[in-house]
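Long-time lurker, first post. I've been practising inverse folding by hand and with some scripts of my own, and I keep getting stuck on stretches where the structure tokens seem ambiguous. Below is the full token string for one chain I'm working on. Before anyone asks, I'm not after the true native sequence, just a reasonable design that respects the backbone. If someone could post their per-position residues I'd love to compare against what I wrote down in my notebook.
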């Protein structure tokens, strides 16, 4: 018994020593890279080594003289001999700092994780903030640089993945640098062709069952009919939160109500949660605020960088107004993003469809290991690349009745097995 106890203690010490050695080795490897700085250890509840650092990136990958900025990167280490998954996050990386954070693809592949915060978000915002450098081509250059920097640290197979705007970014990055990685998984990624694409509205009008759609529209109409009593509550909430807007609060109320159907299907809500027609005004107000937070349209929005990208290249969606015209405070909503959702000094930005054409042609003309996962009723699926057919190495999977939360783990069991078979083949 005593010898067994001593052996156990020795094993624990050996394991701890190995962990410390690996931690030092990874830190040393990162610190030795010329463009990496501020390497710091993070906590992780799964016992894996986790670090955050900053990578020096060019503002303009076509002109080094434009200067540089620091881009935040989070690394979760499983082994130098393991594959690596790079998350091309479309927004900020703060949530990945959480000790409990887990990412699906790196977990499925037992891979290292390299999580990259998108340029112009949170800690990766250049100072001063010159919006002209916020382009998809430049962001693709960021990931390309990180891939090359870490090539010697993680020499195994590499994969990219992202969700929503991050899924778009995975798709875009692959289109500019198709040979950088061995496989890509884009979750719920749209490919919009214009600022108000036009495909989302008819898609929403076909989502779910006729009874579900009628229930959603009933709520929207009732919220507009109750404008005299519900809008003041809505306005008071905005005032208490300190939100300010470029347009009158009545138009913001219109937009929130019109947004409701998109938000409902995007997040896979249940019609049973929708207030009944005879519910009180405060119930209507609370439900609307809960589903369509008005800060989204405010000057205080955390999504300014996204809105600039949508205006310039990513595109967005419009609203179906015909059923509600009698009760709206405005005659039209066309151009609402330019009028409402970006600072007035950036209103000059025009949409450029070249990115759409570039990616569209890339996907049609190539057949490389790429996977796209969508939810059947997610409005973003309206502009997804579900039209990709007849490819051998490009795969599209759509979760039945799925939403923007569609993942490998939410798919039917048979589909999960099919996906895992593909991923394991890529990772060999």
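-- Answer (accepted) --
I ran through it position by position. Result:
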């Amino acid at each position: 018994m005593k010898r067994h106890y001593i052996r156990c203690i020795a094993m624990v010490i050996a394991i701890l020593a190995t962990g410390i050695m690996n931690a030092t080795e990874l830190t040393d490897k990162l610190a030795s890279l010329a463009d990496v700085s501020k390497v710091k250890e993070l906590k992780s509840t799964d016992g894996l080594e986790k670090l955050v650092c900053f990578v020096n990136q060019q503002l303009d990958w076509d002109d080094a003289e434009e200067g540089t900025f620091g881009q935040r990167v989070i690394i979760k280490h499983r082994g130098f001999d393991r594959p690596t998954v790079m998350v091309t996050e479309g927004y900020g990386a703060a949530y990945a700092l959480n000790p409990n954070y887990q990412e699906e693809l790196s977990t499925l592949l037992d891979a290292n994780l390299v999580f990259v915060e998108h340029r112009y978000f949170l800690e990766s915002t250049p100072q001063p903030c010159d919006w002209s450098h916020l382009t998809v081509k430049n962001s693709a250059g960021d990931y390309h640089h990180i891939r090359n920097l870490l090539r010697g640290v993680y020499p195994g197979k590499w994969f990219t993945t992202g969700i929503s705007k991050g899924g778009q970014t995975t798709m875009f990055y692959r289109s500019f640098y198709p040979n950088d990685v061995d496989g890509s998984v884009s979750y719920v990624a749209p490919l919009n062709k214009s600022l108000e694409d036009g495909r989302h509205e008819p898609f929403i009008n076909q989502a779910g069952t006729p009874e579900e759609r009628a229930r959603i529209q009933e709520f929207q109409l009732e919220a507009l009919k109750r404008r005299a009593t519900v809008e003041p509550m809505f306005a008071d909430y905005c005032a208490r939160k300190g939100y300010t807007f470029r347009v009158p609060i009545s138009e913001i109320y219109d937009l929130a109500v019109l947004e409701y159907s998109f938000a409902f299907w995007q997040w896979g809500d249940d019609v049973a949660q929708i207030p009944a027609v005879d519910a009180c005004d405060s119930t209507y107000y609370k439900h609307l605020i809960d589903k369509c937070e008005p800060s989204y349209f405010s000057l205080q929005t955390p999504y300014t960088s996204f809105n600039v990208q949508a205006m310039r290249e990513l595109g967005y969606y419009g609203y179906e107004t015909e059923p509600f015209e009698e009760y709206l405070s405005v005659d039209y909503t066309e151009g609402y993003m330019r009028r409402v959702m970006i600072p007035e000094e950036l209103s000059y930005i025009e949409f450029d469809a070249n990115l759409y054409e570039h990616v569209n042609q890339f996907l049609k003309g190539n057949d490389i290991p790429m996977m796209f996962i969508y939810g059947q009723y997610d409005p973003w699926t309206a502009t997804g690349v579900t039209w990709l057919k007849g490819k051998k190495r490009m795969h599209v999977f759509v979760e039945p009745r799925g939403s923007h939360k569609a993942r490998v783990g939410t798919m039917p069991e048979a589909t999960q097995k099919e996906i895992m078979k593909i991923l394991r083949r890529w990772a060999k």
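A couple of notes from the structure itself: The chain has a mean pLDDT of 94. Residues 413 and 419 are 10 Å apart (CA to CA). Happy to go over any region you disagree with.
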